[in-house]
Amino acid sequence: MSLTRYRAKRDFNITSEPGGKAGRSGAVLHYVIQKHDATRLHYDFRLELDGVFKSWAVPKGPSLDPTVKRLAVHVEDHPLAYGDFEGIIPPHQYGAGKVMVWDRGVWQPLDDPQRGYQKGHLRFKLEGEKLQGEWALVRMHHRPDEPEDADNWLLVKGHDATAAAGKTAEVTAKLTQSVISGRQIDEIDGPPPKRSQLTKTNQPKARVVSPEDDAAPAAKAKPTARKAKRKSTLPELLEPQLATLVNSVPGDTEAWLAEIKFDGYRMLTHIEDGQVQMFSRNGKDWTQRMGNLPAQLAALNLQNGWLDGEVVAVQADGSMSFQALQNAFADPPPKTAARLVYYLFDIPFLNNADLRLQPLVQRKKKLARLLKDLPESSDLRFSDHLQTDLGDAFTHACHHGLEGLMFKRVDSVYQEKRNRDWLKLKCQQRQEFVIGGYTNPAGSRLGFGALLLGTYGDDGKLHYAGRVGTGFDDATLQSLGKTLAEAEQKTSPFVEDVPPRERAHVHWVRPEQVAEIRFAEWTEEKRLRQAAFLGLRKDKPAQQVVPEVAIAADAPVAKPGKTRSRNAEAKAETTAPKPKRSTEDAEVGGVRISHPTRIVFPGTGDTKVDLARYYEQVADWLVPQLKDRPLTLVRCPQGAAHACFFQKHLTDTMPEGVQPVEIKDESGSATYMLANDVRAVIQLVQSGVLELHTWGATQRALEQPDRMIFDLDPAPDVSWQQVVEAAQLLRGLLQEAGLGVFLKTTGGKGLHVEVPLKPGADWDTVKAFSKAVATHLAQQLPDRFIATMSKAKRNGKIFIDYLRNARGATAVAAYSTRARDQAGVATPIAWDELPTLASASFWTIHNVPERLAAMKHNPWADYDKARVKLGPKIVQKFGI
After folding, report:
1. CA–CA dist 392, 390 (Å, integer)
2. Tens of pLDDT along 672-690?
3. How many Cβ atoms sit within 10 Å of the Cβ of residue 622?
């Protein structure tokens, strides 16, 4: 859709909606969700793509529950200027009613966005003020009773750490304010705010950021009456970033900093107009429990913001005690309660400015500046760090009785989920367990004898993990015993039978209480040995307690889009390939490679510098495939296991070796990229590029393609042998038409069948011809092939994707890597090699250089000689 439909539906002499025209989309793609109280209340979901907002009307709004599929009706494209529109659409105008900007931020495609949009399956990540994590938009099958122009999709939340269930998932009911004005939908009145009045500070920016200056925050002043009315743009809720348990210090020490792992309660602080609220990690308001801390936080030079840290109990001798922290929260508290101290280690928001996408070291610098003038009597502390000798630091931490250390990537962004950018290494084994029962006390003991413990497994059921009978004081025995007696039930909450000797005189309870336990080790039967009770945890729901098994600090990360349990993480410790560590100077082809040992292909452990050296080795083969062809890049700054995005336009952040090329488009012209030598390619590696995709034409004749590509894309249930046979059938058909036919693996699951052309035919002709070929095969062999993108019809079939022959479409270049965990490479092969090949992902950065060095005959040696013009005689054979 163009903006023609958008403009035709509106009279801009009446409505204040922006007229707008198509713009240019850069490396960072924005999204906006507008709450629209028209004939019926709904939410307009808009994703920036190709210079416009692709738009869907979602009647019930987004849900955080992956099992809930929300109808999303595809509507006309909107201009990018619409992202700031908030106000009233006048009566008798299309969409008349109130419009509020409910959420906004950036989105990152997980696949080719143009192709996904055309196919009707968009997978992406949101980094917004209200929504985060993985999502998908999926086109529904057209029903016979629907109008011909009906285009219904489903909006679905992905299974990740940002997902939720039940009432927690109904995010539109919890978060109701505008993110740019703070108003509710019924408070929208009069004209929309002018663009100059809209605050931009809370909008996430590009993932690659420049270091911020060190200017101190403005001095805190008493708000004037006018300022007092202004509403903050802070998110109402914030989830904490969580760490992954490891069993070793990270190897690439320059990429990490270390902090003390505090033995306390994680606490997020929300400050709005000077008012302080302190939330536990599961979102409960604990402000009233925090003693003097809220008053001290209110006195900071911070009018609006979010702080992250840990509250600990400090005893008279200066030591931290988790049990003392428990006692401090007792009702009533003991007369000699320990002192509560709040160690702060992060600042996601500072005076309305969103710092989440800034590097950690920059955020900590701002936090240190905020806390630098605190008096010695203050209970607020800056959690300092070190960046050298991490192994020695851990040894000293354990020697001095600390719980352990936290390791955080110095350039990591703040993400509201658990990931591998933050790691935790403990001096002793301890974790949370769910209490599922208790035994009777013996002798003179009060309350109970022992607790029966468990954790939740991948099946969502509680599994027995053993007993704990030590570590309780009299007060805990009495208070916890009373709580458990009130929670008794007749049946065991554990999925398996508890051994008879361990369930003697047991009372089963509802699995609601969470205990912190220290223990020596796990037995072969997965039971705790030498367990000791440390205290109850009120800051974590029982359902979130799972086996916390440490993995290697440098173990490969799981594939994106797949959820791994901590049990699965444990297997990575013994089965994952050992990551390679480069000790040589991080310079390749005259290009300096920063973070050279960052793992970019998790399945093989190959690093950023390994990738650069691969391209240096194959430069003579790769560069001719790229020369003078406009590029589309797949950038994965943190590696293939992390977020990736497409980039096709040249930006100021691209290296100098990448050359510009101007290409006309609907909005005038746009600047694309060329990489015409190996230095430019290695510079792209330094910029986080893992895939190189090229146009089917060179800059000398951009409107006349010089190749035609058929992408054989098999459904998951199609065997490799079927793919091989499909390629051979297609080859025979094309050769009968007088065309030269060449073959390339994709580094993924399919094959590319390529036809070299002499420039002459335009894009429309080449696309129409390739579509006719695909349709012909699908009609002749309907059990094997399909020429449409409908996933519902693809089971057992191979989709012949001809859409790579459209103007602006791209295909992965020969000898380019793919952003997948096994470091696969798109590789030209001879037709007689195909029957002997094990899969389309057989060739990798490890065996391709060896292949090229040993190869006696280039399978594409005659590629240029085989070029023919796609003239009338050939075209007419397929009825065009």
Report:
1. 6
2. 999 999 999 999 999 899 9
3. 23
Q: What is the DSSP letter of 549?
A: -
Q: Are 692 and 812 a contacting pair, CB within 8 Å?
A: yes
> How far, in Å, CA of 180 to CA of 198, rounded?
6
Of the chain, the end-to-end C-alpha distance in Å amounts to 26
Q: Which residues are catalytic?
A: 261
> Quick one: tokens of 393?
């630091």
Tell me the C-alpha distance between 208 and 778, whole Å: 44
Residues written for the chain: 880
- What are 429's two structure tokens? 């084994």
Query: What is the count of structural domains for the chain?
Result: 5
Reduced to 3 states (helix: H, G, I; strand: E, B; else coil), residue 730 is helix
Calpha distance 695→804 (Å, rounded) = 9
| SS3 category, 613 | helix
Within 208-350, residue ranges assigned H as helices are 225-229, 293-298, 322-328
Please tell me whether residue 424 adopts helix, strand or coil conformation: strand
Q: Is the domain of 456 the same as that of 524?
A: yes
Give the Cα separation of 760 and 564 in Å (integer): 51
Q: Which residues are CB-neighbours of 435 under 8 A, at least 6 positions away? A: 451, 452, 453, 484, 509, 511, 512, 513, 514, 515
Look at residues 820, 858, 854 and name the one whose alpha carbon lies nearest to residue 839. Answer: 820
**Would you say residue 221 lies in a domain?**
no
CATH of the domain at 444: 2.40.50.140
Contact 743, 726 (CB under 8 A): no
Q: What b/e sequence results for 481-514 when a residue is b if at least 16 CB atoms lie within 10 Å of its CB, and e otherwise? A: beebeeeeeeebbbeeebeeeebeebbbbebebb
pLDDT in tens, 89-148: 988 888 999 999 999 988 999 988 999 999 999 999 998 888 988 999 999 887 776 777
In a domain, 381, yes or no: yes
Using the 3D structure, point to which of 406, 426, 446 is the last residue of a domain.
426
Instruction: Give the H or E element holding residue 313.
Output: strand 305-314
Residue 450 sits in the same domain as residue 395: no
DSSP 9-75: T--TTT--S---------SSEEEEEEEEESSSEEEEEEEEETTEEEEEEETT---S-TT-EEEEEEE
**Residue 246: inside a domain, yes or no?**
no
Contacts of 426 (CB under 8 A, 6+ apart): 245, 261, 403, 404, 550
Amino acid at 223: P
788 and 674 co-located in one domain: no
Cα torsion angle, 213, 29, 183, 307, sign: negative
User: Is residue 859 pLDDT above 90, yes or no?
Assistant: yes
Distance CA 509, CA 484 (A): 7
The residues near 388 (Cβ < 8 Å, ≥ 6 apart) are: 253
Distance CA 471, CA 337 (A): 19
Q: In terms of residue numbers, what domain contains 264? A: 254-426
Say how many CA atoms lie within 13 Å of 692 toward its Cβ: 31
pTM check: above 0.70: no
- Residues with Cβ within 8 Å of 1's Cβ and at least 6 positions away in sequence, in order, are 76, 77
